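Morning run. Coffee first, then this:
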Amino acid sequence: MNIANPRPAVLPVAVVIPCYRARATIRAVVAGVIGRVAQVYVVDDACPEESAATLAGRFSPARLTVLRHAQNQGVGGATITGYRQALADGHAVVVKMDADGQMDPAELPALVGPILAGEADYTKGNRFFDLGLLGGMPRTRLFGNACLSFVNKLSSGYWEAMDPTNGYTAIHRAALARLPLDRLARRYFFESDMLFRLGTIRAVVRDVPMAARYGGEVSSLRIGRVLADFPRRYLACLLKRFFYLYLLRDCNVGSLNTLLGLPMLGFGVGFGALHWWRSVASGIPAATGTVMLAVLPIILGVQLLLQAAAFDVANRCTAPLQRLLGPHRPAAPASAPRRTALAPLDAG
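And here it is:
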C-alpha cells in the first residue's frame, strides 16, 4: 500500500471537458481527472484532429462519456452540450475544465467545496487572489483580464468576482437547470455571459483562489477579436441586467438614482460642451450662470450614479438557490452503464 501518495477520494461531481484541437493534451487531462470524479464528459467539438478518438479503449466506459458535434459550436456550445447530458444523467454538481492542461485536477476539492457545503451555486477559479499565484500568467493576459474583470462587475453585478474569463468552474444543478442554455453565448464570451445569466436568477457565486498554470500552448483568443466583440456584449448585458433587476422585477433606490443621475449627467455634459464650443467660436467667455448650469447637473448626476453603484454592490445574492429550492435529484451510480459515444448532434 502506498501511504505517501494515497488515492484521492472520488468527488460526487461530473466534469465536462470541451475538446477542440487538443489531441496532444486531452488524454493526460482525462487521466488526471477520471479517478477523482463520478463521471467525465468529453465533448468533441468537430475537432479536425479528432482529439476524442485518442481516448478510445483507454478509459472505463462507466466513467467516460464522449459526445460529438457534427459542426463546430465553440467552447460555449460544447460546454452546454455537456451540461445538458450531465443534467439528464442526474448529476448534482457539474465542473467545466478545458482540454489544454492548464487546469490542475488537484484544485477540484477546493473548487466544488463551497457548492457541496451548500454555500454557493457557482464557483470559479480566481488567479488574481494572490500576487504569488500570478507568476505563470503572461503580462498581456494579466492586463486584459484585469480590465475585463472591472467591466464584468458592471455587467453581471458580481462585484466581488475577479478573473471572469477563467474557465475552471463548477455549478449546482439548481442553478444550471434555471439558466436559459439556448441563449448563452456559444464562443469566447461564454464565461462572462454565464455570470450575467447567473446574476439574473440571483445565484450565489464564489471565487476560489488558484494558481495560473501555463505551458507552451497558444491561445486562440485574439486581442482584436476581444476589442471588436466584447464591449458591445458587455454593454448589452449591463442594459439587460438593469432592466431585469431594477425596472421589471423591482423598483428601488438604485433604480431612482440611476434614472435621475443619467439624464442630469447627460444634460450637464451636453449643455457645457455646447456653450464651450460657442465660447471658443465667438471668443466671448461664458457667463458664470451658464457655467454653473452645466457644472451642477454633472456633480449631482455623478453623485447619484455613485450612490446607485453603492446600492448595486450591497444588493448581492446571499441565499444559494440550492437551499431555497430544496433537495436535488441524486446522481446515477458511477458503476451504471453509460454510452461512450452519441450520434452527431447540433445544439442549435
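The beta strands are 11-19, 37-44, 64-68, 93-96, 122-126, 169-172, 205-209. Good start to the day.
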